[in-house]
Design brief:
The complex is a heterotrimer. Chain A is α+β, with helices and mostly antiparallel strands. Chain A has 2 helices and 10 strands, in the order βββαββββαβββ. Chain C is built from 9 helices and 30 strands. In chain C, strand 20 and strand 21 form a beta hairpin. Classes of the chains: A alpha+beta, B alpha+beta, C alpha/beta.
Amino acid sequence: MAEMICIVCPRGCRLTVDEASGAVTGNSCPRGEAYGRSEILDPRRVYTGTVRITGASLPRGPVKSSAPIKTPLLMDVSREIESVTLISPVRRGDAALKNVLGTGIDIVVTRDM
Amino acid sequence: MYDVIIVGCGITGAAAAFALSRYKLSVLVLEKENDIAIGATRANSAIIHAGYDPEPGTLMARLNVRGCEMAAELCAQLDVPYKNCGSLVLAFDDNDVKSIRALYERGVQNGVKRLELIDSRRLRELEPCVSDKAVAALYAPTSGIVNPWEYALAMAEVAALNGVKFLLSHPVTYITGQLGGFTVTSCGEQFNARYVVNAAGVDSAAVHEMVAEKAFTIKPSRGDYFLLDKSEGSRAKHTLFQCPGPAGKGVLVSPTVHGNLLAGPNAVSCLDAHRVNTTAEGLAFVKTHALKSVPGINFRDTIRSFAGMRANSDRNDFIIGFPVPGFLDLAGIKSPGLTCAPATGEYAAGLLEQHGLELVKKDSPVTARRKIRFKELSIPEKQRLISENPLYGRVICRCETITEGEIVEACHSPIPPVSVDGIKRRAGTGMGRCQGGFCGPRVLEILCRERGISPLEALKDGEGSVILFNETKAGGRA
Amino acid sequence: MNWELIVIGAGPAGLAAALAAYDKGLRKIAIIERDRYAGGILNQCIHNGFGLHRFKEELTGPEYALKFIDRLRDTTIELICDTMVLHITPDRQVHTVSAEKGYQVYSASSIFLAMGCRERPRGAISIPGDRPAGVFTAGTAQRYINLEGYMCAKRVVILGSGDIGLIMARRLTLEGAKVLCCVEIMPHSSGLARNIAQCLKDFDIPLYLNHTVTDVTAANGRVSSVTVSRVDANRAPIPGTEMVFDCDTLLLSVGLIPENELSREAGIEIDPRTNGPFVYENMETSMKGVFAGGNVVHVHDLVDYVSEESAKAGEGAARFVSSAENADEAYIRMLNGDNVSYTVPQRIRPGRLEGSVKLFFRVRSKLGASVIKVSDASGQELASFKRLSMSPGEMENIFLPKEVFQKARGDISVSASEA
């Protein structure tokens, strides 16, 4: 049995997951159940960080992954973004980096700059 | 060849430079730190003492009374925050009553004016927040409070405007020669002077020993302080002392010129004069003793705790004199050194003259200084200032209402700052309740812009105190 | 010109209040912002987790702010940036200063205070030791890293487990720094449980509860080590438990304080429990026509509630302006019962209530399965609620129907106890 805190919402439910069966208890909603199961089988997080930008009022812009990324890849994603420089203007939702590390997931801008 | 080289620029060195700058002399000040006034001068009780503490007949007693008399006018002339708030030495028992009587006698002998022994009723009228347990007090209406580093900066800036040269980050390593021809080595460079003044604070014994036999020992003493928010500033109207003991004048509670409340110090002998750290025990001691004077202090409203180092010595008096001809010690300047400073500077100039330095007055030396303090201006004055320079309309430090105009002015002042704290000391940014949390990054940005340096070179305070290590996303640089 | 509403601060509170007042019919609304753009602290909160309550989607800070900023374009609300409010007066004059317009005094029929909060600095907790470079509040570090693109740390100890500190533990790690530990003096974290999981556990960063920093040393002007000690039940350090961490940075996440300089100076009554203004059911302060919401009233965990509370205040301001709803009325005080450290609102005028009151509060200590009891001065129980667990780090709320206040005899207290 694995115990964990659900991060789907600020409520922070304390989940218990049976590794063998994937059965989740302690959740208050279906999303919590899905989180508990995926956390055992394939833990993922939305990546958030910054990217270099020129010509904007600030030297960095905020970015996120368009979908949750495998947790162990987060550090690699952060390093991958090192090589990107955007040129202003960019709109929220624009891709800063497509298909990061071959995951099929994009890194997108979250502010108009 | 300089006429005079002053080693060290705390309040005493600055006062000596200020005094000498009125005369037709070439003067050089060598300061080992990257800014002036960042030793004992920046961390102390900020009191202009009336002069009842020093033993009658000492140099300290004479300079104290004189320095206290000079303070109000000089501060007005130099635009230094000063307030003649008066002080009270509290007596809690019969022994204390004897002590304050003795202090009163001393004060009278020293020539302190308007001293009064007051009873508990009068004490409560003067100071409503004082402890019920205080039974009497010595009242010294001539005592005051000052911004100590600004006092030193103002004297040094005026000296600079009068042609005194200041070299910062210049520790003195050797001094050779004699009257008429000293060679002072600093940063591998040699500077020649007819006279040398040793105002090196905690390092004054070491500088003395570069030219003369060992004659005294500096016994550094550290003290911790609490600085409380302006919300606590009205707890004390006067500087409230307890009776002095063997460790010094004891823990005081005092208003500050900025409207905060100050409590401290304790006194701890230190081996390392350069580690000025606070300790949990020291802070706890200060808290307990401050609450004895003013039980209502809310220490939860502390905005800063800090420690100061006093350059005490093994003597009972200041060490002022010529161990060898032409080399003047201004050493062992312990409390009340801040109060004495302008008198000490004047006295030092007189001694140099007695020893052959010709003091010829300049025709029209700078004697005053004016600073723009945006928040103290009237609305029409604010409007006019902003229309002349829009930078005065941009508030950077929101706690203290300090504008970009004032910061830029500080950056280009006669002794320009090289650090964020250097700007704090000149413009007052980051002095308030957020302690630079909000304005720190913006002050850094302005400092870098005005000095033409990279943020990676910007310092918080002394040498080495870098704030930022590297850029993020450095790999993306084109 | 007379503004119907002047909003001070264009962070999430100010934006929500201005838009809500607009939706209720006000047209002459100005938002005065000291920064160069709207959004407030959300601009540097680039992580996700915002908006789940309000928008049912997970947004980053800038995205959450844009949901409001985008709407401004379709309104007559005027956004005045790079302008600092210096004073407000009881007759609702707003004194401002800016580089562009100089010293300006605006008058308003109503004012909304949305100045947010600030971080407690090192001095506020009197950490002993040296005072070198390398001691930052978490928010200052966040600004350097996320907005300005500079790293201010390589090896870090974090004191305090507030949410910003936890979020910064992850940010610093992702930017290549080594976060050695997070230290919390209390027996429980003051941040959200999900942030402990995704910011510390994901990166194997230890959390030391019941510990604090007892010394800071410097080398060459920068932090060189931080000493961490265990504390006893009275939060006093236990000698002999010291751990020394070689590091260059101490990050502080030791609490937030509502920023009420303007309110205090104007003479608005401040609740010592929250450090924010006392507010009525419609978020009006003790000064007629002056409303407040968000972190200037009490420190929130979730921006969603900041928006909700501020929108309520914006509606209150609109009603005040349009119906001159300004008669003095009797109010019921909301008091701390056992285990409760504050409530917001603190004052309810039953005559002004339309529907129910959403009451926010925090508990003093961590509780398991508990009961929240609402009772009046006579001891009469007016309402009760159940919770599986409660923690001081997580703001609680309950809905109290209008009838509760009609039934109440005297002031009302809210208490919490384990079932």
